[in-house]
Amino acid sequence: LLQLDAMNGTRLLVGWKWGAAPGPGEFVPWGIADNGTVLYFRSVGAPATWTVALGKPGVAPKHLRAFPLTMTGFVAELLAGKVAPPELPPLPSAIVWVPSARSTSA
Questions:
Q1: Most Cβ neighbours (<10 Å): which of 37, 68, 72, 82?
Q2: Does the structure show a pLDDT above 80 at 56?
């Protein structure tokens, strides 16, 4: 997933404005895949229970694919191979942790 600031200025959903506070049931972007697919929260209920939807930039919400999972649950199931949305690029065959310069102590 690319950094969130890469989404600034991208037309994500029809009628959505970057930085706007979400109303109940609205879609809030939280990530964008290498192939341009945008990952959203669906703002229903408490933020800790918001579910995930994904789709191409600039589409109407009715064209998003919804998952009955929180962001944490979605990412966990994606990495475990339990969900494989065709909208997302395939996962690499191996995932390797590479510490950043900021995570090392001097």
A1: 37
A2: yes
